[in-house]
Design brief:
Residues 155-250 are annotated as: Disordered. The chain has helices at 13-28, 41-54, 80-91, 103-129, 133-151, 156-224, 241-253, 294-301; strands at residues 3-9, 33-39, 68-71, 76-78, 258-263, 274-279, 310-312, 323-325. With 327 residues, it is an alpha+beta fold.
Length: 327
């Protein structure tokens, strides 16, 4: 089967009608191939001159506005009208489609003209700047996949097994990531709980420390203060030898007696002194003696029956001898 080539301006409605006719022809005859080449209006004039060199029957002046049709075998067909007549004669296809008439045909032609203009503009930008990166990437990917498939042909069953293995590996990686995330979250929660517990303990210990600090400070101050040196106990003055001898005689006379201990304030009468009666089991010592009046002794003696022995020291400026009296 012959291949047809149709060349013309991208904004030409007559070329759009050739495209509608080519759609019907390829639907009826699938083996038929019809190729379209679109040009800018300024470029199409130069293209006509090149085509005229191959086909002497082509007149550039007559075909400057319409498309040019020829076959791959070098046969010049003519313009769009000649192409419709040749298709009707050879393939029994009507020039006009029965479903497209009037306004519908005009709308279809107008859409094709706009589409051709857009395609030509995109092709022009592609030739000038190159294809978009997305298209280049897709094209390169398809080339690599085709080369890999040709170099390593594998059966479909093997491909399915590889796909399953890849899926299992991906699922395992996802599970590991989830487990790591869960573990990290648990660690963070534990750290937060520990921090909260430490804060609570600190809050509870602060009042206790505040209470203990003054006590500790007082203890430190007491420790820092110099402690008064304990003076050794003063021993009572030793009486002269005569008094010691009299004291021994008195202690022998009264080993365990009722001792009268009284205090006489200075400048007060002797009868007003206070006194108290004490049981004193220990031997009589000089420090236990006191100067009292006779009236006091008589008052005390009334409480004692049986003539209890009393130790009597008469009051006066001069020291009197001790005597054992029974009142």
């Amino acid at each position: 089967m012959a291949n047809y080539f149709v060349e013309g301006r991208c904004d030409c409605p007559r070329l759009a009608r050739c495209q509608l006719l080519a759609d019907r022809l390829t639907a009826l005859v699938p083996s038929l191939k019809i190729h379209f080449r679109l040009f800018e209006p300024s470029e199409f004039k130069d293209r006509l001159k090149v085509i005229a060199r191959s086909f002497p029957a082509l007149d550039p002046a007559l075909h400057s506005e319409g498309p040019v049709v020829y076959t791959s075998g070098g046969v010049f067909v003519g313009d769009d009208s000649s192409f419709a007549a040749a298709a009707a004669a050879k393939y029994k296809v009507a020039a006009a489609e029965p479903d497209l008439e009037g306004a519908a045909l005009a709308a279809a032609v107008h859409k094709l003209v706009l589409f051709n203009s857009q395609q030509q503009q995109q092709q022009k930008e592609k030739d000038k700047f190159g294809a978009p990166l997305a298209l280049q990437a897709n094209a390169r990917t398809q080339q690599i996949l085709a080369a890999a498939a040709a170099a390593n042909p594998t059966c479909p069953h093997h491909i399915q097994q590889q796909h399953r293995l890849l899926q299992q590996q991906q699922q395992q990686r996802q599970r590991q990531k989830k487990q790591e995330l869960i573990r990290m979250q648990q660690q963070r929660q534990q750290q937060q709980q520990q921090q909260e517990q430490e804060q609570r303990q600190q809050e509870q210990e602060q009042p206790q420390q505040e209470q203990e600090q003054p006590q500790q400070q007082e203890q430190q101050q007491e420790q820092q203060q110099p402690q008064p040196q304990q003076e050794p106990p003063q021993q009572p003055p030793q009486p002269p030898p005569q008094q010691q001898q009299q004291q021994r005689e008195c202690s022998e006379l009264v080993p365990a007696s009722l001792l009268l201990e009284a205090t006489v304030p200075r400048g007060c009468p002797k009868s007003t002194c206070d006194f108290k009666l004490l049981l004193h089991p220990s031997p009589l010592l000089l420090g236990h003696l006191a100067a009292v009046s006779r009236e006091c002794v008589q008052q005390v003696s009334r409480h004692c029956s049986g003539g209890a022995p009393l130790l009597l020291l008469l009051s006066g400026a001069q020291q009197q001898q001790l005597a054992n009296a029974s009142l």
